Each structure stands twice: as C-alpha cells, then as structure tokens.
Amino acid sequence: MKQARCAQLVCSVCTGALLLGAAGLLDGHMATTHWAELQTLELFSCTVAAGYPRYVQSGNRITGGGISSGIDEALFIVSLLRGTEAAMACQLKMQYRPAPPFHAGDPADGDIWRHPTLPQQVKEVWQVNDVREAYKKWLASQSPAAS
C-alpha cells in the first residue's frame, strides 16, 4: 500500500480494477472497470465513476473500462509521462482512429436500443453474478470477524 502511494502511477485496464480494489489500492479513489463489472467494483472502498467512462484518473490511480478503452488510457498515460506530442505520435504510429461499424460499446451507446437484452445476455454468458458473489464471499472471509 505504501509503495502504491509513492508510485508515479498505479493503473489497470478492464477488470484489473477488481484486483486493485481487492488489494485495497483503490481505497478512497474514483475508479472504473468494464461496464459489466461495475456492480462488482462497488464492493470495494472506492467511488465508482458514473456512466461508462473509457478511463478515470484519481490521484496517481488510472483505471480503464474494457479492453479497447486501454488504448485510450495508454495514450493518456503517455501524454502524462511524455507529453501530448509523444501521445499523438503513438496514436499516429498505430493508425488509431476509431470508427466502429456499430455503436454498441457500452449499454448507453446508440445502437443498443436495437438489441436491448444484449447487455444482460453478455453478463449471463460471462457469469458476472457468479464473479460478484465470489468477491463478496472472499471479502467476507477477510473481515476480522471471520478470523
């Protein structure tokens, strides 16, 4: 924990935020994760950012949404560490100019209305409720009363 406070940056992408939360590294910070696991992130001592941000900076913590959000987050981190021009050069080298064929990247996106049950279907396939319950059980086992 002390090392994280002294670190220049402590970052995660996607559900890596759940691991940071479980380690206590998000205590008192605002954070995000993949949209399907936002309720699981609420189990930890952090503030879950409203909506579905691509990434969130809170002090020296930077957490990102799903996998593709990691590209946006990485460019932001490069801009912090090396400046905007370096981040723009990275983006240009990758030819990163998102133009998805659909707008269904999170439950609030424009094309989801065509398939309103899709977010729930994804959560069921990924067994999100089972993941949340496993974290709840683990957290309960960590409490002093459980010892």
CATH topology: Rossmann fold
Helix proportion of residues, in percent? 40-55%
Q: How many whole angstroms does the radius of gyration measure?
A: 17 Å
Please give the count of helices.
Answer: 7
Q: What is the annotated CATH architecture?
A: 3-Layer(aba) Sandwich
**Largest sheet, described in full?**
3 strands, mixed
- Taken in chain order, the helices and strands follow as HEHEHEEEHHHH
Intertermini distance: 22 Å
- Considering the protein shown, what is the CATH homologous superfamily? Class I glutamine amidotransferase (GATase) domain
How do the strands line up in the largest sheet? 1-5-4
Query: Which structural class matches the secondary elements?
Result: mainly alpha
- Integer average pLDDT: 93
Tell me the name of the CATH class.
Alpha Beta
Contiguous runs where pLDDT drops below 50 for at least 5 residues: none
Give the overall shape, derived from the CA principal axes.
Answer: flat
Q: What is the percentage of strand-forming residues?
A: 5-15%
Domains (count) = 1
Q: Give the total of beta strands.
A: 5
Put the structure in a nutshell.
This protein is mainly alpha-helical and 147 residues long. The chain has helices spanning 2-6, 16-22, 38-41, 69-82, 84-94, 118-125, 128-142; strands spanning 10-12, 30-31, 47-48, 55-58, 61-64.
